[in-house]
Write a structure and sequence with these properties.
single chain, alpha+beta, 12-stranded antiparallel β-sheet, 14 strands, 28% strand
């Protein structure tokens, strides 16, 4: 192989090696065991505002560095004992079914009652099927926060009852998002964008979302339809069809602003130098 061909081969090899692996990652919230509050049988107070990390991460090859993580936190519009501003809720993990939400207005409070418990006006919140993320009387949602900007590409539920409609919002504002004290209808004026409403999700099957490819660190997934009538609020997607789901997994690819790791940056530099040498050699031929 002559010098020109060697330079060309080196450039091509470096470029291929440096190309980012845009494999999709599946973040699963599948816990073998978990201590949860469930109605009056709870053995400990629910920790409103608790967070959970993904129980497993899959995708080959993984395009994200080992330090990348995601946390999940539950929210519901319980402030004011009704459909008011958002407050943190309890995030239970129901084995292979996934995550649910138990809000502060649960009717069957655990003993001892956690601080800030509401008036118990949310029906059978905390008992089946409202141990799931639901929109019966109060509208529940889960905030997923990633260390890096990602494109949410799919969601997967592990259990549902009655109906299984979800909405997805992405935070594209500046800094970290604020949810506490805001109504759902105020989110789009505070840095959140509606990604879409998604209907009739099947259990244990990926539902593709975010077809436009929005990138964000923070994603809010809730039951029902967001801004269905242009009000910026949440409502049932169809009259009388309340949604009860447990969220098992979310899928992502790297966001648009992902910076190449040092090793990749070096390979890109080698590739660029190789291609420059090849073009220079051609001009001198």
């Amino acid at each position: 192989m002559n010098a020109k061909n060697l330079v060309w081969a080196m450039g091509c090899a470096a470029a291929l090696a440096a190309a980012p692996a845009w494999a999709e990652v599946k973040w699963t919230f599948n816990f073998n065991s978990s201590t949860n509050c469930l109605g009056q049988n709870a053995t400990a107070a629910c920790n409103f505002g608790n967070t959970r990390h993904a129980s497993s991460v899959s995708g080959s090859p993984l395009p994200l560095p080992p330090t990348t993580d995601v946390t999940a936190q539950a929210w519901s519009n319980t402030q004011g004992s009704g459909s008011g501003p958002l407050q943190t809720a309890y995030l239970p993990a129901w084995g292979s079914s996934g995550l649910g939400v138990q809000n502060r207005d649960m009717a069957n409070a655990p003993s001892p009652a956690p601080a800030g418990l509401g008036d118990g006006g949310d029906g059978v919140e905390g008992n089946s099927p409202e141990h799931a993320m639901d929109n019966n009387q109060r509208y529940d949602s889960i905030l997923f926060s990633f260390d890096e900007s990602v494109k949410l590409t799919g969601v997967e539920i592990g259990w549902s009852s009655n109906d299984s409609d979800l909405f997805v919002l992405a935070y594209t504002g500046v800094g970290s998002p604020t949810l506490a004290g805001l109504n759902y209808s105020q989110l789009t004026a505070n840095g959140w964008d509606l990604i879409g409403n998604y209907f009739d999700l099947a259990t244990n099957s990926k539902k593709t979302v975010n077809e436009s490819g929005v990138s964000a660190n923070h994603w809010l997934i809730g039951t029902g339809c967001y801004d269905q009538n242009g009000s910026g609020d949440v409502s049932l997607c169809s009259a009388g069809n309340k949604d009860y789901v447990k969220l098992l997994a979310v899928y992502t690819t790297p966001g648009d602003n992902k910076v190449p790791e040092p090793a990749s940056a070096l390979l890109f530099a080698i590739a660029g130098a190789g291609l420059w040498r090849f073009r220079a050699a051609r001009r001198g031929a």
